[in-house]
Amino acid sequence: MISHTDKKIRFHLAEDTIDDKDIDSLVAWLKTYPRLTKGPKTLEFEAAWSKWLGAKHSVFCNSGSSANLLMYYALLRSGRLRNKKVVVPSVGWVTTVAPAMQLGFEPVMCEADKDTYGLDLDHLEKLVKKHDPALVVMVQVLGVPHKMDELMKLKEKYGFFLLEDACAAGGAAYKGRKVGTFGDMASFSAYFGHQFSTIEGGLVSTSDKGLNDLLLMHRSHGWSKDLGQTEHDALVKKHGIDDFHTPFVFYEAGFNLRATDLQAVIGLGQVAKLDWMVGRRRENHSQFARRLGGKLDFQKVPEGAETCSISFGALAKDNAQRRRIVDALAENGIETRVFSAGNLGLHPFWMERYGKTSFPMADRIHHCGFFLPNNPSLKTADVDLISDVVLGAL
């Protein structure tokens, strides 16, 4: 197989969404000699993101992976879970599942849906009936929304909490509602190459104030500095804290997962142009689907849904065909990689604890899946060129 280093890359899988205007704005702000650590700009960015998304609250942290950790921990500490059983997806990222293992949950893995590659809802219902989990974790896979009407009906029927990993899906929508507003909490990534970037960064969004207060405390050591005055005063009164100690009292066994105001300034510029970036990714995704339709398998978009993918994911008919496609892409300077992480049930971190967990659809994604570039800088001619290379290798 041709290594990606053998040819100069003409089309990267990811391009930076931070442009000259963002840098100029950051430089102008830096010249005011502001506080760089978490401060007022973080609050401004959280509010701007929440408004754009359609959620009441958002907590800015240092990565999408940390956002997932915060979601799990906030639910665990909320006292609302009837047990520690959780259904996790087979197709996602390691840090979609890792917090369940780190925090002592009892995870059981779910097959991937043949259309969206999210949770297979028939398998999910069987698992829910068998295990009665208090929690289900889903991924909006690669910016293609899942079948949310059906999933929310299962949530209502069986009474589980839902965590929505939308780290690679910011801007995707289902029937006019942005993904990341369906679950009890949702995570987003602001890493390089995702829908928007703060260099590194992540967010948890929720419309549940109680969960948001726990997220704020867990993000910053477990103290109450980021809470509203009423909530802070209630904790001081409840625990009989001396006034002198109140700034440094730890009510929760928290983490330090904060981002910085420097990143928040970049984030504000990203939100301002996010609709444009989402639109460009959506157009590219649709063009890939038109060009490759009938030749390769890829995610089917549910009726009434709109994509916002960070890459276009496709499935070859078998591993040998994928190898030919990958070689052709590399030969033409087009970057590619496996589809997400494939089936997480085939990775050592999972198999060493729970054994090999194999499913027909998740395994096919694992062995046949690959990514094609999708970012706002791609032009129509670029998408056509990339598509032609793929089609020529079939």
Essential attributes:
single chain; alpha/beta; Aspartate Aminotransferase, domain 2; Aspartate Aminotransferase, domain 1; 2 domains; three-stranded antiparallel beta sheet; 14 helices; 13 strands
Tell me, briefly, the overall form.
Answer: globular
Helical content, roughly? 40-55%
What is the name of the CATH topology of the largest domain? Aspartate Aminotransferase, domain 2
CATH homologous superfamily label of the largest domain: Type I PLP-dependent aspartate aminotransferase-like (Major domain)
List the secondary-structure elements in sequence, H or E.
Answer: HHEHEHEHEHEEEEEHHHHEEEHHHEH
CATH class of the largest domain: Alpha Beta
Distance between the termini: 16 Å
Count of extended strands: 13
Low-confidence stretches: 1-5
What fraction of the residues are assigned to beta strands by DSSP?
Answer: 5-15%
Biggest beta sheet summary = 7 strands, mixed
* Rg calc: 22 Å
Strand order in the largest sheet: 1-9-8-5-4-2-3
Tally of helical runs: 14
Count the domains. 2
Mean pLDDT: 96
Give the structural class.
Answer: alpha/beta
CATH architecture of the largest domain: 3-Layer(aba) Sandwich
